[in-house]
Design a protein that fits this description.
The chain has helices at 2-22, 31-34, 49-76. The chain has 104 residues and is an all-alpha fold. The radius of gyration is 33 Å and the shape is rod-shaped.
């Protein structure tokens, strides 16, 4: 179960990196000087598909991380000794006894 969520975590992280690199840089760097402001809704404009996809994948990554934390914590609270069955051993009846020292 944890292996499945861990695999999903790696895939989501790779997708998030790719989406973040594909987004247009409009707040810092040379993107503010080189891009034109042709948006009807202002300088930033409405959220486009890549921005919504990035936010969705980021939200899924956080949920998957919290799920993994819960599962690892649940696994850490168990011990191998919880599964060990303790059997009481009794002494057999035919064991010879050591003679006692006679007392006066």
């Amino acid at each position: 179960m944890i292996g499945i969520f861990f695999s999903i975590q790696i895939i989501l992280a790779i997708i998030l990196i790719i989406l973040a690199l594909l987004n247009k840089s409009s707040s810092m760097g040379f993107g503010t000087y080189a891009s034109s402001n042709d948006s009807v809704f202002g300088a930033k404009g409405p959220m486009d598909f890549l921005t919504k996809a990035t936010l969705t994948v980021g939200f899924l990554l956080v949920l998957n991380t919290l799920t993994l934390v819960y599962l690892y914590n649940k696994q850490a609270n168990t011990s191998v000794l919880d599964e060990v069955k303790i059997h009481k051993t009794t002494t057999p009846k035919n064991i010879p006894t050591v003679p006692s020292i006679p007392t006066k």
